[in-house]
């Protein structure tokens, strides 16, 4: 039943790897038991053993996946109900923090000055300069490739393939991102540096054909004096949201571009 459930998932390659890794954490213990014969105690033993090793959030992810498989089994008539809902209260709560970000105009201005003063590998420099102008998820930008960009038309555009988006299930088509004049200028500059491979990544890393990693951006931010307690690459979207809301509040709720 677990294998049948997994085969039906519209997973991206990275998500599929994580999903099947989760399966491997509980199937050896429960996989030979018919779904209808499982008890909450069986499931509780598995997730508590994972939590006992200090993996609190991981234990909850395993429990959630067991629940999804059991709901799939129930829909096919092979289980009475989702027994994974019962052991949830025995797990310690997980307190997840939001991504570190900056919120005030003064802090954001200082960060932007630091980014433009930063020198080093062009992939790092340009990725950090472009990210605050687009506010996409860092992974979507880092994995971007040159064929996705139309920089020379009257309305510069980035066509993000649907399979690389977190919302791919709701919107399997490509995602269109209009490019501002500032972003277009930076991308054209970058094209003269990394665009020699017209089908390659915008921000090539050390491995041929592969883009830079999220850790690479984090290292660059730390060298500027911005540790993970101040801002991380995934915090730029939160920074945009907070700054935009603050601006609307200052102008009486109006949305001013």
Structure notes:
The chain is mainly α. The chain has two domains: 13-90, DNA polymerase, domain 1 (Orthogonal Bundle); 105-250, Orthogonal Bundle (hpI Integrase, Chain A). It has helices at residues 2-7, 13-30, 40-52, 56-75, 105-117, 122-134, 138-142, 181-194, 214-223, 236-250, and strands spanning 149-150, 157-160, 175-178. A three-stranded antiparallel beta sheet has the order 1-2-3, with no helix packed on it. The longest helix is centred in the N-terminal third of the chain and has 20 residues, at 56-75.
What brief labels describe this structure?
single chain, 257 residues, mainly alpha, three-stranded antiparallel beta sheet, disordered C terminus
How are the elements arranged and paired?
Blueprint: H1 2-7, H2 13-30, H3 40-52, H4 56-75, H5 105-117, H6 122-134, H7 138-142, E1 149-150, E2 157-160, E3 175-178, H8 181-194, H9 214-223, H10 236-250
Give a concise summary:
By secondary structure, the chain is mainly alpha-helical. It folds into two domains: 13-90, DNA polymerase, domain 1; 105-250, Intergrase catalytic core (hpI Integrase, Chain A, Orthogonal Bundle).
